[in-house]
Amino acid sequence: MRTSDTRFWTRGSALLAALLSLAMAPAKDGCEPNTYVPSPSRTPLYDGAGEVHINGYGGSNGYGGEVNYAVAENAGIGAAYWYKNEKNDSTGLVERHQAVELAGTWFSRPSDIVRLEVGGGLGIGSGGGTLDSAGNIRVVDGDYLRPYLQGAIGVVPIGGNGGALRFEAAGILRFSYVGFTSFTRAGVEVDPAPSALFVEPGIMLRFGIPSVMLDLAISRAFAAGEEPDFNFNNGVMTIGAHVVLGRSENQRGSR
Predict the structure, then answer these.
(1) Tally of CB atoms within 10 A around 80
(2) Domain ranges of the chain
(3) Which of 65, 167, 170, 182 is most buried per CB count within 10 Å?
């Protein structure tokens, strides 16, 4: 293996280890269950128009999937859904979360290796916790809207213009505004309902054949400004499969 290759994989492994340690950090302290769990940091990394990207995953925010479609040479649309229903070991409560998102993406392929993507969208979600798995005695409940903007810089050092294998990596920075439309504690409505702005940096890695790849997404959530009046999960890590349809037609030169 060449010295440059060794340095690339060494530095990449060190970065991945650091991000894994950040993603596995405990959720925000407190006896109250989380009412906001961020969506995974992910971006399609389109090669060109006509591609369909399908992703299914599981992880610290539960289970979910998303579909993205490049409707034009530099524009894509997407939709996503995820849910979580499990006991939180730190609070002893059963947490329930779900969200659906609609998004649009502008993308550019300045070279066979580099990908640039900027997007935004709207998420509609809910979160809360109960005292038992049957859903009795609500402790906290909230419904929210989450408009967001994100930018991503991706690299495809292997398979960027064809080949049997493909490796993708992307750094993602997302800004999410979480505004609750309703929020209750122990059955009492909180008025006004809380809201907060979050900065959510993340990384995404994919490896496999060009049409089917293993997908790993890791991100953190940091509240911008004052501490929110609700608990949130500040680390998300997911792993899943990423399927691409229509990619081969776009691997014959940069856009």
Answers:
(1) 20
(2) 3-250
(3) 170
